[in-house]
Amino acid sequence: MSHAAQSERLRHSTRAHIVLFRFALTSLSASVVDNLVFYLVFHATGTIAGAQTVARIVSVFFNYRFVRRSVFFSDHGHHVLLPRYLLLAGANAVVSYAGIRLLTAFTHLAVMPSKILVETLLFFANFLIQRAYVFTRRSHAANLTDARSAGL
Hints:
It is a single chain. The protein is mainly α. It is built from 5 helices and no strands. The protein has helices at 3-45, 48-71, 78-106, 111-134, 140-149. It is elongated.
């Protein structure tokens, strides 16, 4: 492998790790919000589904803004990104709810530790799906076309 190829590979790897680090920080912040709201609603109502719904609504809008602007730097508009993000958030909430119910039914784990465990396991899947499907970057060809049409 040539020195230039090794250098490019290292730059690409470093960029990927930086994006993952920013995603982790944003996700950690959103999970604090989500878990706090979940805890308060769960203790007030005693229902996992209600607590999950309220907490997810609050944390989704908090997380969407920061992930879009600070992690993936997506240049697509909200009309494209928000429906994709909400679809993923909804699927994530269903999987999380099912995981919490399964863990509390078949183990000695309480609701909060079950929630934290399930959502920790979903972290990497969410990163990969958001990077590949939700916050896709425009193709190099599209950027060249825009540059040419702008006379650059």
